[in-house]
Amino acid sequence: EALTVHRATESALGQVYDHLVRAKSIAVEGANTASAPLSGSYAALADEIAGIREGLVQIAQGRHEDKYLFNGTAGEVAPFAEDAGDLRYQGNSERLRVNMGNGQTVAVNLPGDLAFRETEARSAGDLDFPLDLTASPVTFTVSDGTSDVAVTLDGTYGSAEELAAAVDQAFRDHEAATGVTVNLEARANEDGTWSIRIADTEAGGEITVSGAESLGISAGTRNVFGLLSDLEAALRTEDPAAVSELLDRLDRGLHDVVTQRGLVGARSRNLELAKNRLETFNASVEELEAGVEGVDLAEAVMRLTNEEQAYQTALAAGARLFNISILDFLT
Question: Is 80 exceeded by the pLDDT of residue 81?
């Protein structure tokens, strides 16, 4: 089942990518002031963006074998819900994991807050962001693509060193369990706030941070659905400049989808290899069992008895040979 979930997720992300590529093409057309569409054509472009957004909503709310694909482990809770015109994630960031052997596990699912968030609410790569510790404790999750680190901060730190030590402990526990090292830096800002910087893992794996609302980063419409709503609004107001400003966000959205799809694909390949190893092992066991079960017990006992008698006869002959002395030849 883990492998089929990965394949379904990878396929869904492929559809998301195709939708965003088309949205980017529309945005480029709407932002091109040199050959801007005539009045009325903007409305057609806006309608197409609205259709793309609806298509993404259907993908995000999709199921695999009667289970939501992108709601984490939230059971029958739909991944996203409309909220004052925005589409908010209402699942969780939990991962289902399967044991790969040798103490290694792999995440089976991809929560929707990773799959559909923009980088303002979920950053990837070299992260540098402020911490709002006024409503402590706050919790966020850092993932290296195969394993997660849950970090909880209580806001009672007197120095950047204390903050760094608190976060570092969570990563030390993670390193001990997985062998993956994450580079970390925390600092106090001049305005009295805190900042934290998390770099890519030493093994070269890309990291992401989720639960960004607890870090003081607004979740609101900062997802691909909000992005497409902004693009639709800019097209309906026939504002090429506003459309142009959204191109970078579309590029980041495409990059995020490619990144997540690549990670899911890598995990799929690992699961495929594990599946093949298991099938080979099972085939060997079945062959061994068939060989054992196919033996005629009576025939096997008779053969063993005959071989034992032959062995005893050989031993007796050998013993008589070694008992011969020169006196036997003189008589």
Answer: yes
- pLDDT tier, 88 (very low <50, low <70, confident <90, very high otherwise): confident
Contact 222, 120 (CB under 8 A): yes
Cβ proximity of 227 and 233 under 8 Å: no
- Residue 111, preceding bond cis, omega within 30 degrees? no
Contacts of 120 (CB under 8 A, 6+ apart): 212, 217, 218, 222
Instruction: Choose between 170 and 79: higher pLDDT.
Output: 79
| pTM of the predicted model over 0.90 | no
Note whether 48 and 26 are within 8 A (CB). Answer: yes
267-288 pLDDT per residue, tens:
777 777 776 776 676 666 666 6
Structure tokens at 45: 């472009």
Q: What value does the CA radius of gyration of the chain take, rounded to a whole number of Å? A: 32
Share of residues in the chain with pLDDT > 70 (%)? 52
CA 310, CA 316: separation in Å to the nearest integer? 10
The pLDDT of residue 199: 52
Q: Determine the pLDDT at residue 213.
A: 43
Which domains, and CATH codes, for the chain? 1-120+219-317 (1.20.1330.10), 122-217 (no CATH)
**Exposed, middle or buried, 299 (CB in 10 Å: 0-12/13-18/19+)?**
exposed
Q: How far apart are CA 219 and CA 34, in angstroms?
A: 35
CA distance to 137, 194, 212, 217, 220, per residue, from 134 (Å):
8, 11, 15, 13, 20
Residue with tokens 């059971």: 75
Backbone angles phi, psi at 123, to 5 degrees: -100, 150
Phi, psi of 149 (to 5 degrees): -125, 120
Q: Which residue has the higher pLDDT, 228 or 319?
A: 228
Instruction: Tally DSSP H helices, then E strands, for the chain.
Output: 9, 12
Round to whole Å and give the CA distance between 325 and 22.
Answer: 102
